[in-house]
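User: Batch of two.

Assistant: Item 1 of 2:
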Amino acid sequence: MINQIIRYTTIYAVLVLLQILLFNNIQFSGYINPYVYILFIILLPVNIAGWFLLFIGFFSGLILDLFLNTPGMHAGATVAASFFRPLILRSISPRDGYNPDAEPSMALFGFRWFLIYSLLVILVHHLFLFYLEVFSLASFFKTFIKVILSTLFTTIFVLIAEYLRK
C-alpha cells in the first residue's frame, strides 16, 4: 500500500513538472495544447473507489490550477474525467472483466484497448477544459477543433509515455 502511494505520488509529481515546465509551453497556432497530466487519472487502478477518484481528480486539477493561474478550469476538467472514467471502463471492459488489482496499461490490456480508453478519457477532459476556458458557445466549432486536435496530440504523448513506462 505504501509503495503504491509513493509510486502514484511520484508519477503525479513528474507529470505536473512536465506539464508546467515543458508541455504548457507547446502551442501550435492556438489549436494544439497538450495536457499530459491527465495520464495520472488514466493510470489509477481499476478498483479505486468512486468518491476517492473524484477527490484525487479535484485536488490534482486544483494543484495545476494554482501553478497555471487558471482558477478552477483544470479542477473541473479532471473531476469530469474522473467522473466518466468508471463508465468508460465499464463500456470497454474485457469479456471476463477486470482483475480487482489491475492498473490500466497497454501491457496488460493491449494497444487497442489502451488507445480507446485513453482517447475517451482525454476527450472528456479536453471537452470540459476548453469549453470552460471559453465559457461560451459563440465559437463552438473553433473550440471543438481545438478539442479534437489537442486530444489527438495529448493521446500521442500518453501512448509514448506508456511505451516508455514499461
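Item 2 of 2:
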Amino acid sequence: MSSTIFTGPVIAGNILNTNGTTVAKAGGSVGLQNVGFCQMGQVSAAFTQAGTTSGTATTIVIPAQSIITDIWVYVPTAWSASATLSIGTSATATELATAVSMSQGQTTVNPGSLVATWVNTASQTSDIQIFVKSSATGTGTGAKVVVGYMQGVNGFTFGTTNTNYTA
C-alpha cells in the first residue's frame, strides 16, 4: 500500500474564514469558520520490560506546537512483577503519565493531573520525543505506545481570516 505525506498541519472544512454571524447550512459557503485539525498518530517500536533509572527514547516524535489528545498502551503479554509504565518527554519519563498498568490488552492513558503537559506541548518550539520507563525488570516484551495528537494548533486563530494555511 502506498502512503501520502503531508507536511501538515492538516485542517479540513469548507468555510476557511468567518464571513457571517451564523453557522452555514449543509453545503453552504457563508457563515462561521468550520475548519478543524485532523487527528494524527504515531506508534512506537516494540519495547521490553526493563527497570532502568532513566527512560528509553521511543521512535515517536511529536511535531512542535501540537497538542497530545490520546495515549494508548498495547501489551501482548502482561508484564511480570506488577511493573507499571511511565511515559514522558524526557529521560525522567514522568511528564505525561505515571504508573500505567501493563496488564495484557489495550490501556487508554488518562493524563490526570498531568493534563497541562499534554496541552502545553503546543507551546514548544522544538519537536518532542516520547520516552518510556518500566518500574521493574521482568519478562514483558512487545509492548507498544500509540500517541494521538493534533499538529500545529498553536498560532492558528479560529474564527478569523487566517493567513497561516494553504488552501
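The chain has a mean pLDDT of 87.
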